[in-house]
Amino acid sequence: MAMKLHEYQAKQVFADAGVPTPSSQLASDVDGVLTAAEEIGYPVAVKAQVQVGGRGKAGGIELVENDEEAREAAESIIGMDLKGYHVGQVLVEEAVNFTDELYVGITMDRGEGKPVAMVSTKGGVNIEEVAEEDPDAIAREHIDPAFGMHPFQARKAVYDAGVDKSVANDVASVLTTLYDLWESRDGSDAEINPLMVTADDEVIAADAVMNIDEDALFRQPELAEMEEEAASGGDELEQKADEYGFDYVRLEGNVGIIGNGAGLVMTTLDLVDYYGGEPANFLDVGGGAKAARIANALDMVFSDDNVDSVVFNIFGGITRGDEVAKGINEALEQFDEIPKPVVVRLAGTNWEEGMEILNEDLVTVEQTLEDAVERTVAYAEEVNE
Amino acid sequence: MAMKLHEYQAKQVFADAGVPTPSSQLASDVDGVLTAAEEIGYPVAVKAQVQVGGRGKAGGIELVENDEEAREAAESIIGMDLKGYHVGQVLVEEAVNFTDELYVGITMDRGEGKPVAMVSTKGGVNIEEVAEEDPDAIAREHIDPAFGMHPFQARKAVYDAGVDKSVANDVASVLTTLYDLWESRDGSDAEINPLMVTADDEVIAADAVMNIDEDALFRQPELAEMEEEAASGGDELEQKADEYGFDYVRLEGNVGIIGNGAGLVMTTLDLVDYYGGEPANFLDVGGGAKAARIANALDMVFSDDNVDSVVFNIFGGITRGDEVAKGINEALEQFDEIPKPVVVRLAGTNWEEGMEILNEDLVTVEQTLEDAVERTVAYAEEVNE
Amino acid sequence: MSVLVDDDTRVVVQGITGGEGKFHAEQMMEYGTNVVAGAVPGKGGQEAAGVPVYDTVHEAVEEENADTSVIFVPPAFAGDAIFEALDSNLDLAVAITEGIPTQDMAKVNKRLSETDTRLVGPNCPGLITPGEAKLGILPGNIFSEGKVGLVSRSGTLTYQVVDNLTNRGIGQTTAIGIGGDPIIGTDFVDALELFENDDETEAIVMCGEIGGEDEEEAAAFIDEHVDTPVAGFIAGRTAPPGKRMGHAGAIVSGSGTGTAESKISALNDAGVPVGDTPEEVADHIEEFIA
Amino acid sequence: MSVLVDDDTRVVVQGITGGEGKFHAEQMMEYGTNVVAGAVPGKGGQEAAGVPVYDTVHEAVEEENADTSVIFVPPAFAGDAIFEALDSNLDLAVAITEGIPTQDMAKVNKRLSETDTRLVGPNCPGLITPGEAKLGILPGNIFSEGKVGLVSRSGTLTYQVVDNLTNRGIGQTTAIGIGGDPIIGTDFVDALELFENDDETEAIVMCGEIGGEDEEEAAAFIDEHVDTPVAGFIAGRTAPPGKRMGHAGAIVSGSGTGTAESKISALNDAGVPVGDTPEEVADHIEEFIA
Question: Rounded distance, CA B301 to CA A124, Å?
Fold first, then answer.
């Protein structure tokens, strides 16, 4: 999974590596925006710093010509809710006059098992759409990760994309820097879209995406620090899951789901759907969870007001049934009345020990996955009758 | 070919990369040595800074306990002639108490076409002798240059060499640093011999070798600067050849040899020997030499007092016979009397044009390589009759 | 017969002196696996889980004729451990470790193309030939000897499906957890080929999940090269597009491939029935080997 | 017949807009070589030496069906140029450039093991099939058509030996300058194999020099695999141990191998006569094909 840097953070990383970026300042209130705009000089763009795509269309980016417009933009953007994310900060940025908008990006091609560099002259829009509707408009060059990107590969991608000769060298050089960053910073994606071309043939990174492989954060201490800042925003429950270290996704339904292992949890979701219910979430406690972690998981799902019933499906490998049972008891014994019905199914390692420990007064026990899900869906339906 | 750093330069490079080295100071006179020794604290080693092996045996390294001994050592070493090299500077260095002496090194294995890391517990002596007499005493690990040295490879070399567990990790770490330096600095050889092990299980680089690939100096500006200093010393004529940019080696005989292309020049030497003469030098003017360069070559060989006759053998490919002839004329027309007889043989590109230009009053012309060499050897014999 | 592992397999455990490594080395031996050595830098000469520990895998191969490694090394060092295994002339390396940086695995992937050693994983439960030997962390007691080969991207989902089979008295030749990471060694196609060439395997279960195109490629391979009947299962039918669900692989791209629909229809087109529930998968297998 | 190059060879010249590149492109064409394109980044769309220039070698291959590249790119960029050539599905790349950093060549060497494209050089004069085509900087006029294959580590020494042959009316099938650098693409063994399998080559000249062990390896190969008679020459008999003479390869290690003696005796043991002078080499060849 990837840790997403904010635009302003990614731009800082890129600028430090020598990629030309517009001058900009971060601001978190109206005065800050006005001061920044003054120093940079109008026109400037005021850009919400949240990690979602399509900020422009959603009203998160405004181009302003003077103090009055800047104030209006600041007031409307700072504090807004943008696709579920609270906007706490904006980037005030020099507006660049451009003649062309390019796309350059590096990502891991999972199918090939190697990095791929991409260049397109159709930057400035949703590159996924371009990829779908006009795939040939994106030049792709696969990189051998042992060698890194050869200079000829950067040039080839740029020429293959049809980038104008007047800026080809500069774009190749940005692409090379981008690859070096991607590689040295353990990027999962590094993108500049658009890479603007100005009337005097300069290139400048008008937006910046840098996502970092979370599994590699241990060796990226600087970026791990940025994560603290970057993590702000997002669904409250998802933030809580982040703290607990759960893989958690909130969904629309009312059947809470807890399990171990992504495949099995997804299967449990699928079965809830199969039996006519609607999953409220995906929650994977991971492998080898101890009692406290199990209790935390239950606490999380209970805190979701949408949840009407909970299915707890554990197939123990390195996770032990007795630990699961202890955690469930711990979580439920604190309540005078169990807030939402919990169905438990334990299998695999130490399931018999687990069943002995489990306080069956507090939960419903089922022997098979199918029965457990069916029962949980039934409980949820009862609540809504 | 390789540019050799002085010990003190190599140590600086290694120390900057985190390899432990003894404290040391450079000195170029007796007072400097005394001051340095005072600051470092006795005992210290006084080590001649010249790029030849076997300095210790040749009297270029002295271990001293006090001012008196230090003065004596400084006086004897500074200014001495060590295997033909003038000693201008000495390194005054903390004497290290050691329990073991290891060898670690990285070089290019030409046969395999890939780098090789080497570790031995038989450091402190001539490693070439160890390689010859007890090859298994050196653990070798070939490195894939695309990946660089994997950490397991450093460990494997260290364990295979039988390095004591108490210092194995530290030695592996020095080896890793050495490889990184070798790779990032375009080394041809990087060696520490001995890598001393102290009584409290610390490792410290008591000597340091770092030779740089001359073809890569263009991208090693810092090291290229060190070359200025490093180049001092050596045969005067060889220094001159360095300035002119010739491949030149001075030998013992009296037949001067100039030609184009290493293989052909070596063949000319071999023929001189075959016809009973003794080569005075190897001088390769390289490919595409112009008239001025040819004149310089002749000037060089004339300046060697040992030379009694000169054979000029050019087979033109990208070197043109007319340019060669012009250069020979230029060089010789300045003399009232030609100092040493010159035999010229021109073949290949524009040889006819060359023959037309060549002032045959100044030189003897032969049509074949064999005849030219035979004639030159005969001239040399005449001089010595 | 069986694939990749049997009771002749000679196992070295990388990381055997760590908590997990030691525990699972013991578990493997208890199941009957022939664990012959451990390899931990700096721990050479010690003993762990009752077997000698060497500083390098190479030594374990030389001294104990190990031919297979199981890797329980923390993620920061696991890439290097895999490289070491691939350098040691082993037949097989099984990387259990979860959370190896993707770029490390991209480099491993490159090296895999240059070696004859097979890698299973990383981030996988390992593999098991019931009644003979297991490599990894699978709970041995749910497996039983039989004629069904199983390959899966997901650990606990494998257990679930195996449980359904075993409960009906349907045993397994070998079960392989290939792992859910973006870059893995042995993939569906490799595993299917192994089972297809195994005389004893009479039916195959393939458990996939959303994300990537491995299941689509497997379907194409089955269509052309696999005569053994295959039943499939795909987890993640209800996963909303664009949401991550655990495995990095489980990202729905939103477009044509990678979705549950795409995978199921590719498998169906290749003649592979895909169960709606794990029980249904067992139903299909029961029909195949009836 | 001939090896590696003939009048069907379609050549792209990398670095054709540079002084040397342009001059030798013209010289090659004058000799009859089918130069179809140049490749120089940023110069695509121009013309040089009368042929179209492309930004990349790939384009030259696509647009002009080039199958061979000759590389005249300055040393700092030559390693990358070779990588580009090796990535372009060519049959052959010939690197003339002298002074490429050794570490760049070590990386190229690694890539060579992964590609079907053959590399000759670097730091070599190139190769020539007299009367058909030449690739590189050899002076065409000294060569003549005939039945002797020639392979040499040294440029001008090659010319010397060829001159001796041509003066006696002995022509050549193909002459290959493999270059004197520590790390090269095609080596003696490769070239000997090509000549051995060439129906028209009736004798082979092999010109080696001191340093390295390539000549010793070649001798072993001749002993086992080469029926075509071979005559040898070794430059550097009088070179003092430990002194560098030009080529990085020409370093005498001081011990067993790498010396002229070692090479000559290895060749003699393989039945290869080694001439004391270039004329003596021609004598041996004359006997072979008499």
Answer: 67
